[in-house]
Design a protein that fits this description.
- The complex is a heterodimer of chains A (1083) and B (292).
- Chain A is α+β, with helices and mostly antiparallel strands.
- Chain A has 27 helices and 33 strands.
- Chain B is of the alpha+beta class and 292 residues long.
- In chain B, a hairpin with a 2-residue loop joins strand 6 and strand 7.
- Chain B is globular.
- The chains are: A alpha+beta (1083), B alpha+beta (292).
- Chains A and B meet through strand 4, helix 4, helix 8 and helix 27 of A and strand 1, helix 2, helix 6, helix 10 and helix 11 of B.
Chain lengths: 1083, 292
């Protein structure tokens, strides 16, 4: 029974009807509509719901609202005063403390309480205070910087940089180390020339995220909205005999209940040749949590109750949980169509592998096993569906791929694509887990159609784990052959990918697991056999680095082992095999720019590799097995050969250092589905063609009538990675206006043209081209008007920094054709040959070439371009940008430009599966990990990471470093602690954030991130990817450092303390274990 | 995942709470910080419909020290316990547990009484308090009794608390000269992680070189916080050196009754018990020497 109580929230008293079962979080979000406080886990594990109770940070999900009378409650909405951000909010904005923003309100609230009673906390005090706030994006580096430097943003606000002005580029790529962080440069002089690309401006959405104003899907409440829930299977494999929904239907407040009978027969999925999912089970369930029924009710609590009242009768079938068993004769079959449960078989053979092995001086063959890693974004998946009276479906979805969702909704619901409007509100992280249409999207649409009301559906944390789509666990057998000098002769891999119950992205995953191996090193002979196998677990999908991180981990381990065998330094052996620019790989992938060697040089130098590696190696005696070598070498430990005899006063700690490298695509060369964009379900599938049928990225730039604002419309999905910001920067650069005059609308398919979305690390390159071309089209339309005002030839006009001016002749590009990659099929790209556009992304090289500086930690300053210098020199003849825009509007009406991007045709070879791994450009990177291992407990402390990346031109260095820092912490966590565990009946044992462990701020290492000087000819302004590739070096580097510290290689992930101890024990007894430690069993 | 329907009773006094609890029987639970209880209710681990909140009984809050020792009110939060001057001055080993338990947000709400009375096997306070010879005061309308903490727990999530009985206080006796204690725990993550294994140890030295008394209490490796008599007796009359610690650590390892679960196998936990016992004893001894 709800009782009216007074709650004091942010200084205001609210009289609110509170039910005894309402938590404070429920009341804040659902009744007071203060949605800045987030629901991330609902059981006190993540800290996203943190509020202050009488000044003390508390999880609002674990407080009864009825008990909060008389307390002073502060939420994120209460931090900014009179519209001005508090100092810590400003610090988060400017120091890169925000990415997806979902943890941000809780993080800022907690930090506020810390600084309240401890204005200058030490690094350890900050980490202690923030240990209950999980972040999945930033690696905590920017968050730590923000709290450390908060002082800078307090007091006189004029010294704090304004959110919308260009910020001095991040002076520090180095986080978590006070002494190494160089002083921030002063606030930029507004008079100085400003180049937008290459500058570390704060995220364009930062202020919204730090105040709680940013709306995520679950924060949106539509009039008359109701709530849905899905019932998942309780068993791993079975036939659905009967679903009795009568009790659920009879429950007061229930408006609709649907089962497999109520959903279309159309199958859906990701890979068009393997659509194998029904919206709700029609005959079988194939994993625990497989959707069986769904309800809609007046509120979420009622929907939950109704779900519990549905009775399902199953005929339980035998289940299979690992791919090696699943392919055996007589194993339970999940789908009739996948014989022996083999979903995809990849067989690729380049060169003559066996001959090359026969000729190799050194051969190393090893078996590795990966882990079940889950993306675990802080924001749970959510969807809201509503139908308009004309039959248009409006779907709000927390998704990385609005277009593919639009396409799939049309496909399953049998409506034209044009009748589906997808709105992507702020997304709280994805990492591949939100890269496909999910049951929430579909059930919400079906329930909404049935009830005639908007339906909201949100996964609980546990349901997220049951939905799955995490990283495939791979069982890998690898063989590497090398010459005496370390040159790779041949490489062979056989991989069984544990696919789970449905195809999802798995076909591509299986190909990626092989195709990306030869992009990093020259491998003249390569054979790959991949089997993606169905098992009775949630489907695996695409996670950051899609298919590649585990094989890359295995390969990097193998290469490091081989380096030891040959007595070659691990960095040196990489140099000897490193990929080089302008190379066609053995599997027909075209590498253009490649500064892999520079990344190796960078990490070697910066980490002090030469001084550390040999020393630690000898100390820990990698080659001769475990010897007592403690941090204080004088202390020998005879007990090492006996059962461990702990020396607690002097923990038995050893240091280790290791290296890993990696690289990734900058966008997939081909779209996921075949044919043209308007394909609908009744149209026969078109044969796959090796060309881009439609542009992958499209943009419209629209100028306000007064010329003071530019609106960039593009469907590219901002999911926290920062695409809205870097796209705004590229657009502003190409328009020649400050980014503060640009607004981006990327959330609504009715407003913004198609972009394929945020996957395969494609947005910077592909969408970047589209926005730059659209902006260039605008400038080209303005050019004659500017020329008239400036009394010069239109070709002499340049736009820069809010002005049109006359460019000196010397600045013109003589050969436009060569430096622009105009797509003739894109109408707005035509007939620009004569134009001399100073800010065109495709022309950037000429400018950059002359202004090139080594892009290192000391070089984070705006890249002064020729245009900048000359435009300031010739500033005598210029006219305001907006003036030209107004002239244009007066004569022609709306000033709009469009642009599009298609990858070049013919990417890749002619063999089966040749398209997977194709890309316009490839990234490269190397990481050195330093850590310590407690030999008594096996506990690993990741202490420091040194990373250099070749991402081409960094559009926003702070954003690049943010991606690297986040990838390092995510990658290190997945190497040592992350693993979804199942029992022998397919139940997930840790579907929560206290069982599935991701690193906290106290686990995160200090990180140095550097960017090497590089230019990618096919990237906008020379840019390529950073988001996914940055994960790839991490796993191998951690594994190597552990081997370096302990003398034992752990070949299966995650490398837990228990596995380390077991390996050490086996080593001590010459391979004979003292006692069978066994892998952790589950009870 | 919402809370199921519950009725909230905000008790004004211990008497009030005890009566409410008695009346409702097994369908009622006491509510203090709620950091475990609400999770159990949300996840369906526990099903009750009556919550009897103690949170309005202010007299149950606070830490006081007197001649007899330390008195901790059951509603004292973990944060407040960790910050109490009396703890810093005379009962510092309690910090080993309060500073590493859960996350700050949880410590700000979770109470000492809840951490003990919930009797969750991996709880952090019971081992160190048991090692420090603490006892709990149990109050009911029938009267109150004091129970040594080492006799309070009878099984996982089970205690000697009778119907209507409420844990109304914790007493920790003043440590004698030559006393030192320590709590060592192992978790898979540095922040906000449940203990995989934990050991609290206390020693009382007579002179610098002889152990007069020792207690070793294990956490997270048995249904209850486990006082290992054999580990303590292995040290009696001994010189507190590595050899003695080792014998005690082996005894502790052998006494552990761990389960295998997602955080580690039983074997791994036994190994950890040995390592942690050694660590805890060494630290406890170092602290004991400082008092002499």
């Amino acid at each position: 029974m709800a009782v009216s109580r007074d709650l004091l929230v942010n200084g205001n008293t609210y009289s609110v009807a509170i039910d005894p079962a309402d938590t404070l979080l429920d009341v804040l979000r659902d009744k007071l509509r203060l949605t800045g406080t987030k629901k991330g886990c609902n059981v006190g594990d993540c800290g996203a719901c943190t509020v202050l109770i009488d000044g003390q940070p508390s999880n609002s999900c674990l407080l009864l609202a009825a008990e909060m009378e008389g307390k002073s409650i502060t939420t994120v909405e209460g931090l900014a005063k009179s519209g001005e951000l508090s100092p810590i909010q400003k610090a988060f904005v400017h120091e890169g403390g925000i990415q997806c923003g979902f943890c941000t309100p809780g993080m800022v609230v907690t930090a506020t309480a810390l600084l309240e009673h401890n204005p200058r906390p030490t690094t350890d005090e900050i980490k202690d205070a923030l240990a209950g706030n999980l972040c999945r994006c930033t690696g905590y580096a920017g968050i730590l910087r923000a709290v450390q430097r908060c002082d800078k943003y307090s007091g006189d606000t004029t010294t704090a940089p304004d959110q919308n002005t260009a910020q001095p580029p991040d002076a520090s790529a180095c986080s978590q180390s006070d002494e190494r962080a160089p002083a921030q440069s002063p606030i930029p002089n507004p008079q100085s020339p400003m180049s937008t690309v290459g500058v570390s401006i704060p995220r364009v959405d930062a202020a919204d995220k730090v105040t709680g104003r940013a709306q995520y899907t679950a924060d949106i409440n539509l009039p008359n909205m109701i709530h849905g829930k899905i019932l998942g299977s309780s068993i791993a494999h079975g036939r659905v005999k009967r679903v009795d929904v009568s009790k659920a239907r009879a429950l007061d407040g229930v408006l609709a209940v649907i089962t497999g009978d109520d959903v279309p027969d159309t199958l859906y999925g990701v890979s068009p040749a393997r659509y194998d999912e029904h919206v709700l089970a029609k005959d079988k369930v194939r994993h625990v949590g497989d959707p069986v029924a769904a309800v809609a009710a007046i509120d979420e609590r009622t929907a939950e109750r109704a779900i519990a009242l549905i009775e399902v009768e199953y005929e339980e079938l035998p289940a299979v949980f690992d791919p090696v068993t699943a392919v055996a004769d007589g194993a339970p079959q999940l789908h009739d169509r996948y014989k022996r449960n083999i979903n995809t078989h990849v067989e690729q053979n380049f060169g003559d592998v066996e001959k090359a092995f026969a000729e190799s001086h050194c051969i190393r063959e090893e078996t590795f096993t990966g882990n079940h890693v889950y993306q675990s974004p802080l924001e749970p998946h959510a969807a809201i569906a509503t139908w308009e009276h004309d039959g248009t479906l409006v779907l709000y979805s927390s998704t990385q791929v609005p277009h593919y969702v639009q396409y799939m909704m049309a496909h399953v619901l049998h409506i034209p694509l044009g009748k589906v409007r997808v709105i992507r509100p702020a997304v709280g992280g994805g990492f591949g887990g939100k890269a496909a249409t999910n049951p929430l999207d579909l059930c919400a649409a079906i329930l909404s159609r049935k009830t005639g009301r908007p339906v909201k559906m949100v996964y609980s944390r546990e349901e997220m784990f049951h939905y799955g789509r995490g990283r495939h666990k791979q069982h890998m057998k690898m063989k590497l052959g090398l010459d005496r000098d370390g040159t790779i002769k041949a490489f062979k891999s056989e991989i069984y990918l544990d696919g789970g119950a449905y195809s999802s992205f798995g076909v591509a995953t299986a190909y990626y697991a092989g195709s990306m191996m030869p992009t990093l090193y020259h491998i003249p002979n390569y054979r790959y056999d991949g089997y993606r196998v169905m098992t009775n677990k949630p489907a695996c999908g695409a996670m950051r680095g899609h298919g590649v991180p585990q094989p890359r981990f295995a390969f990097e381990c193998l290469l490091n082992m081989a380096a030891d065998d040959l007595g070659i330094d691990p960095i040196e052996i990489r140099r000897r095999n490193a990929m080089t620019p302008k190379t066609r790989t053995v599997n027909d992938l075209d590498i253009d720019s490649c500064e892999f060697l520079a990344t190796l040089d960078g990490v070697e130098q910066k980490s002090g590799w030469k001084q550390k590696y040999g020393k630690l190696r000898n100390q820990n005696d990698l080659s001769r097995g475990l010897q007592p070598a403690r941090t204080q070498p004088a202390q020998t430990q005879p007990a090492q050969t006996q059962p461990a005899r702990p020396q607690p006063a002097q923990p038995n700690i050893r240091k280790g250092i290791g290296i890993g490298s990696g690289g990734f695509v900058s966008g997939a060369g081909y779209c996921i589905y075949r044919g043209q964009v308007q394909l609908s379900h009744e149209k026969p599938p078109e044969h796959f063609q090796k060309k881009s049928i439609f542009p992958h990225a499209n943009a419209i730039v629209k100028i306000s009538e007064d010329g003071m604002a530019a609106i960039l419309l593009i469907g590219a999905a901002e999911i926290g990675q920062g695409s809205d910001t870097v796209l705004s920067q590229m657009c502003a650069e190409s328009l020649g206006i400050p980014v503060s005059r640009l607004r981006i609308r990327s959330e609504d398919s009715d407003i913004s043209p198609l972009d394929l979305g945020a996957y395969s690390s494609r947005v910077t390159l592909m969408a970047g081209h589209a926005v730059s071309r659209a902006a260039t089209a605008v400038v080209d339309k303005m050019r004659p008007y500017a020329a008239k005002l400036l009394n010069c030839d239109p070709a002499e006009v340049i736009a820069h920094n809010g002005k049109f001016s006359v460019a000196p002749v010397s600045n013109r590009c003589d050969n436009v054709d060569q430096c622009r990659n105009v797509d003739p099929s894109c109408p707005d790209s035509r007939d620009k040959g004569a134009a001399n556009v100073a800010h065109d992304a495709d022309q950037y090289r000429d400018r950059k070439g002359a202004a090139s500086v080594p892009r290192d930690e000391g070089a984070r300053e705006p890249q002064p371009s020729i245009v900048n210098r000359q435009s300031s020199m010739s500033a005598t003849r210029s006219v305001a940008w907006e003036e030209v825009a107004r002239k244009y509007f007066n004569d022609n009406g709306p000033l709009v430009g469009t642009g599009c991007y298609k990858p070049r045709e013919g990417l890749g070879g002619d063999y089966k599966g040749a398209t997977v791994g194709t890309s316009p450009a490839y990234s490269f990177g190397s990481s050195v990990c330093e850590l310590s291992v407690d030999l008594d407990t096996g506990k690993v402390s990741i202490e420091r990471f040194t990373d250099y990346h070749d991402c081409g031109t960094p559009i926003n260095p702070m954003a690049v470093h943010g991606q690297v820092e986040g990838a390092i912490v995510m990658g290190a966590g997945e190497t040592i602690m992350e693993d979804v565990q199942f029992d022998d009946r397919g139940q997930i044992l840790n579907p929560n954030l206290h069982g599935y462990l991701t690193m906290t701020i106290k686990d995160a290492p200090e990180i140095f991130s550097g960017i090497v000087d590089s230019y990618e000819p096919s990237g906008p302004f020379g840019a390529k990817e950073i988001g996914e590739g940055s994960t790839l070096p991490v796993l191998g580097a951690v594994a190597h450092a552990i081997a370096n510290a302990t003398g034992v290689w752990i070949r299966d992930l995650p490398i837990t303390p228990e596995k380390i101890l077991r390996a050490l024990r086996e080593k001590r007894t010459d391979g004979k274990p003292i006692q069978a430690a066994g892998s952790p069993s589950h009870d | 995942m919402y809370l199921p329907d519950v009725q909230l009773h905000q008790a004004a006094s211990l008497q009030d709470a005890s009566t409410l609890l008695d009346d409702r029987g097994p369908d009622a639970r006491l509510l203090a910080g709620g950091t475990d209880l609400l999770v159990d209710l949300k996840t369906g681990r526990l099903r009750v419909t009556h919550l009897v909140s103690l949170n309005r009984i202010d007299t149950l809050r606070g830490v006081t020290a007197n001649d007899g020792g330390l008195h901790i009110g059951p509603l004292t939060t973990i944060t407040d316990l960790g910050r109490a001057t009396a703890v810093a001055e005379r009962f510092a080993p309690i910090h080993d547990a309060t500073s590493r338990m859960a996350a700050p947000q949880i410590r700000n709400r979770a109470t000492v009484g809840g951490n003990i009375a919930s009797a969750v096997p991996c709880a952090d306070l019971p081992p160190i308090l048991t090692a420090m010879n603490a006892s709990v005061v149990l109050w009911s309308t029938r009267g109150q009794r004091e129970v040594p903490l080492d006799s309070f727990f009878v099984g996982a999530r089970q205690t000697v608390l009778a119907g209507g009985e409420i844990l109304s206080g914790v007493r920790v006796p003043d440590p004698p000269p030559g006393f030192g204690a320590a709590y060592a725990r192992f978790a898979l993550r540095n922040g906000n992680a449940i203990a995989v294994a934990a050991v609290a140890a206390s020693v009382t030295l007579s002179g610098k070189d002889t152990v007069r008394d020792a207690r070793v209490v294990l956490g997270a490796v048995a249904p209850v916080p486990k006082l290992v008599e054999s580990a303590g007796s292995a040290l009696l009359g001994q010189s507190p050196d590595d050899d003695a610690f080792h014998r005690a650590a082996v005894a502790a390892r052998d006494a552990a009754e761990p389960i295998s679960d997602i955080r580690g196998s039983a074997d791994f936990r036994r190994h950890l018990v040995q390592v942690l016992t050694h660590q805890a004893l060494a630290t406890a001894c170092a602290r004991a020497r400082e008092t002499l």
